[in-house]
Automatic annotation (TrEMBL):
Gene3D superfamilies: Glycogen Phosphorylase B
Cited InterPro entries: UDP-glycosyltransferase, UDP_glucos_trans
Official protein name in the record: UDP glucuronosyltransferase 5 family, polypeptide G2
Subcellular location: Membrane
Lineage summary: Eukaryota, Metazoa, Chordata, Craniata, Vertebrata
Keywords from the named record: Glycosyltransferase, Membrane, Signal, Transferase, Transmembrane, Transmembrane helix
GO molecular function term, any single one: UDP-glycosyltransferase activity
Stretches that traverse the bilayer: 467-498
Organism: Amphilophus citrinellus (Midas cichlid)
C-alpha cells in the first residue's frame, strides 16, 4: 500500500510531462553564447534537439574557437571576440605546472595555493570578458541586428559572462546550461549552502568535517566572497554603470536567470574499429583513460610511469594521448588523439576509467557505473574525484609525484576489488532513477520559458534581500539590543533596590 501511495504522485507527474504538456513550442528564435570545449559538447546535444523541434538557433562564437564550428546545419553562427582569442593551450599547461607545485604543500594549505592561482587566472579572464562585452554592446549596428531578430530566449553558460550580460541588456529570458559560475558551483549561487556541512568548491573536503576542516571550509568561503566582490565584480563595474540601472552587479544578473540546467546522459554505438578493439579484450575487458588535452603538460616521467603500468595489465587500454609516444608503451595500449569517451564508458567491456575528474568525467562514469582511478589536475577536479572516493567508487592519486608502482596498485585495486564497481553501480542506479530523461526535462523547461516569456515566478525572494537581512542579522541585532536593554534595566533596578535597602539600614544607625 505504501508503495502504491508513493507511486501515485510520480505517475501523475510523468503523465503530465509526457501526455498533457504541449508536445511542441511554437517556432522561436534562440540566441546562444556557449563556452568552448566540453561545455559546448553538452550544449550541442540540446541544440540538436531544439533544432529538430523547429526552433531557429543563432550561436555567438569566437573566430578562433577550438570546438565550435562556424558552419552547421542546426544553427547560424556569428563571430565575436571572446576569451579564447587571447588564450591558448600553453597558458593552461603553464597553470597545470604551477598547480602541481602546490600539490607538494601540506594538505591544509595546498588548496589555498591552488585557489590563488585560479583567482589570478579568473581576474585576467574577467577583465578580457568585460572588455569583449563592452565592445559588443557598444556596437550599435550589431545590437540593432540582434534586436531586430526578436529573439525569444538566451541560452548560455554563465561561465561565459558575455551571454549573461548581453541577455540582460537585450531583456531576454535566460536559461543557463551550468555547473560552474564565477567562484564556484552554481548551487552556491542560487541555494542556501551552510558551510558547516556543505564543502566549498576547491576545499577538497566532504560533508563529514571535523572542527579543523570546518575552519578550513569557512576560510575558503570567505576567500570566495572576497574574490566575487573585490576581484570579479569590479571588472564589470564601468560596463554595468554605463548600460544598466544603478546597483547592478554581475551576481545580480546571474541570479536573474529563469532556469538553470545541468548535464545530459546519452551514448551511441562505437565506430567499427573501436568496437573490434573492445571485443578483442576477451574476459579481461578494457581500461579507458582520458586526461583531455592537458596530458601533454605532465612530466615525461609521469607519462612513462603510466604507460609502463598499463603494459603489465591483462586488460587492453584505450588512452587519449597528445604528445610524444611513451617509450614504455605496451602492445595492449591504443593511443588516440580523440576518443568517444561517453560511448566507451557505456560499452559492457569497459572495466575502469582513468580520468582527471572533470564534470563530464564524473557524470558519465556514474551514469554507466564505471569505477574511477582519479588523477585530478586543475579546477574542480580534486573535489569531484573526492566525492567518488568517499563513496567507495574511486581511488585518487597525485599526478605530480606518480610512480609506476602507485599507479599499477591503484589500477589493480579498482579492477579486482568488486566493491568499487558495486558502489559505482549503486550511484548509477540512484542517478538514473528519475521520471523523465534529462533531455526531455531540459527541453521542457527551455520551452516553458519561451511559452511563458520567462519564469520570474520561480525566483527566490532571498535574492532581493540585502545580506544582513538574508542572514537575519538585523533581527538578531534587534533581539540582542532588546535583551541588552532589558538586562541593563534589570541591573539598574537591582542597583536602586540595593541602594534603598542600604539607606534604610543606615537611618536607624
Amino acid at each position: 500500500i505504501n508503495r502504491l501511495v508513493l507511486s501515485i504522485p510520480l505517475f501523475l507527474t510523468t503523465f503530465y510531462f509526457l501526455l498533457l504538456r504541449p508536445p511542441y513550442c511554437s517556432s522561436s528564435n534562440i540566441l546562444v553564447v556557449p563556452v568552448d570545449g566540453s561545455h559546448w559538447i553538452n550544449m550541442k546535444v540540446i541544440l540538436e534537439r531544439l533544432h529538430s523541434r523547429g526552433h531557429n538557433i543563432t550561436v555567438l562564437r569566437s573566430a578562433k574557437s577550438w570546438y565550435i564550428p562556424s558552419n552547421s546545419s542546426i544553427y547560424t553562427s556569428i563571430n565575436i571576440s571572446m576569451l579564447e582569442d587571447e588564450a591558448d593551450i600553453d597558458y593552461y599547461n603553464k597553470m597545470l605546472q604551477d598547480v602541481m607545485g602546490c600539490r607538494s604543500y601540506p594538505t591544509f594549505i595546498r588548496t589555498f595555493c591552488q585557489q590563488q592561482l585560479i583567482t589570478y587566472m579568473m581576474a585576467q579572464g574577467h577583465n578580457i570578458l568585460a572588455r569583449s562585452t563592452a565592445t559588443i554592446i557598444e556596437d550599435t549596428v550589431f545590437i540593432k541586428k540582434l534586436r531586430d531578430t526578436k529573439f525569444d530566449l538566451m541560452l548560455t553558460d554563465p561561465g561565459m559572462t558575455i551571454g549573461v550580460i548581453l541577455g540582460s541588456y537585450l531583456k531576454l529570458p535566460m536559461v543557463f546550461n551550468v555547473r560552474w559560475i564565477n567562484t564556484g558551483e552554481g548551487h552556491f549561487t542560487i541555494a542556501p549552502s551552510p558551510v558547516s556541512y556543505i564543502p566549498v568548491p576547491g576545499s577538497e573536503l566532504d560533508d563529514q568535517m571535523d572542527f579543523l576542516e570546518r575552519t578550513k571550509n569557512v576560510l575558503h568561503y570567505l576567500q570566495s566572497v572576497i574574490e566575487q566582490h573585490f576581484i570579479i565584480n569590479p571588472a564589470y563595474s564601468d560596463l554595468l554603470q554605463q548600460h544598466f540601472p544603478p546597483g547592478t552587479d554581475l551576481l545580480s544578473l546571474e541570479r536573474a536567470a529563469d532556469i538553470w540546467l545541468l548535464r545530459a546522459d546519452f551514448a551511441q554505438p562505437l565506430p567499427a574499429e573501436l568496437e573490434t578493439f573492445m571485443e578483442s579484450s576477451g574476459e579481461h575487458g578494457v581500461v579507458v583513460m582520458s586526461l583531455g588535452t592537458l596530458i601533454s603538460a605532465l612530466p615525461r616521467k609521469v607519462t612513462e610511469a603510466i604507460a609502463a603500468a598499463f603494459a603489465e595489465l591483462p586488460q587492453k587500454v584505450i588512452w587519449r594521448f597528445v604528445g610524444e609516444k611513451p617509450s614504455s608503451l605496451g602492445n595492449n595500449t591504443l593511443l588516440l588523439e580523440w576518443l568517444p569517451q561517453n560511448d566507451l564508458l557505456g560499452h559492457p567491456k569497459t572495466r575502469a576509467f582513468v580520468a582527471h575528474g572533470g564534470t563530464n568525467d564524473i557524470y558519465e562514469a556514474i551514469y554507466h557505473g564505471v569505477p574511477v582511478v582519479g588523477l585530478p589536475l586543475l579546477f574542480d577536479q580534486f573535489d569531484n574525484i573526492l566525492r567518488l572516493k568517499v563513496r567507495g567508487a574511486a581511488r585518487v592519486l597525485e599526478a605530480y609525484s606518480l610512480t609506476k608502482e602507485e599507479f599499477l596498485n591503484a589500477l589493480k585495486d579498482v579492477l579486482e576489488n568488486l566493491s568499487y564497481r558495486s558502489n559505482m553501480q549503486r550511484l548509477s542506479q540512484l542517478h538514473r532513477d528519475i521520471p523523465m530523461t534529462p533531455m526531455d526535462t531540459a527541453i521542457f523547461w527551455i520551452e516553458y520559458v519561451i511559452r511563458n516569456k520567462g519564469a520570474s515566478h520561480f525566483k527566490s525572494a532571498g535574492f532581493r534581500l540585502p545580506w544582513y537581512s538574508y542572514f537575519s542579522l538585523d533581527v538578531a541585532a534587534l533581539i540582542i539590543a532588546i535583551t541588552g536593554i532589558f538586562m541593563c534595566s534589570l541591573v539598574f533596578v537591582c542597583w536602586l533596590l540595593c541602594c534603598r535597602r542600604s539607606r534604610r539600614k543606615m537611618k536607624p544607625e
